[in-house]
Design goal:
With 191 residues, this protein is of the alpha+beta class. Helix content is 22%, strand content 29%. Strands 1, 2, 3, 4, 9, 10, 11 and 12 form an 8-stranded antiparallel beta sheet that branches. Strand 5 (105-108) and strand 6 (114-116) form a beta hairpin. The longest helix has 42 residues, at 9-50. It is rod-shaped, with a radius of gyration of 28 Å. The mean pLDDT is 84.
Length: 191
């Protein structure tokens, strides 16, 4: 356009379309960013309050859970015998299997067989049994408000058999491990 020349209708329509496109693009970009922020905030809240995600290090729960696995935990304190739980111990998170509840008597023989109240515990998840590092006096009665936990790799696991760790109190428990999310070829529920 030259100075003083009026724009044509086509030029005005083209300019109007470009302005609308820029306005719509800005609105879509703002909406997308807002949506991503909301999704991220919800994911963080869920991961923190309801379902923490843990990166497992160590081999005390092999072969069920291995070093480097990533698992989801559902918060709570209602467990069954055999559930795998995560709990705090000395600024670390440990992962072990619930073996006995408060008031129950635990005994372990030299072959690594575990007895609860005099009955042999069926442990189909174990590949081999071992007495392991045990410095508690057996038979052992689990104190009130506590859980007796053992790792599945009994020969190397540091667990309730060691007085340093001992039985786990409710305040230490994060929750039950229920889902492996990594590695992807092992993705699924954990029993």
């Amino acid at each position: 356009m030259r100075n003083g020349e009026k724009p044509s209708v086509e030029q005005l329509e083209s300019t109007l379309r470009a302005a609308r496109h820029a306005s719509n693009y800005g609105k879509a970009l703002k909406s997308t960013i807002y949506s991503l922020l909301v999704v991220a905030a919800v994911a963080i809240l869920i991961a923190t309050l309801v379902m923490p995600i843990l990166h497992i290090s160590g081999s005390s729960m092999t072969p069920v859970i291995g070093d480097g696995d990533i698992a989801a935990v559902i918060k709570g304190h209602d467990f069954d015998r055999g559930d795998i739980i995560a709990f705090y111990y000395s600024n670390k998170v440990l992962v072990k299997r619930v073996i006995a509840f408060s008031g129950e008597w635990v005994n372990i023989d030299s072959g690594g067989n575990v007895y609860i109240n005099g009955e042999l515990l069926d442990e189909p998840y174990l590949t081999d049994k071992a007495f392991g590092n045990c410095n508690i006096k057996l038979p052992y009665q689990v104190p009130d408000g506590k859980l007796f936990v053992l790792g599945d790799h009994r020969s190397t696991s540091a667990d309730s058999r060691d007085q340093i760790i001992g039985s786990v109190s409710d305040e230490q428990v994060i929750g039950k491990i229920f889902l492996r999310v990594w590695p992807l070829n092992k993705f699924g529920l954990i029993n």
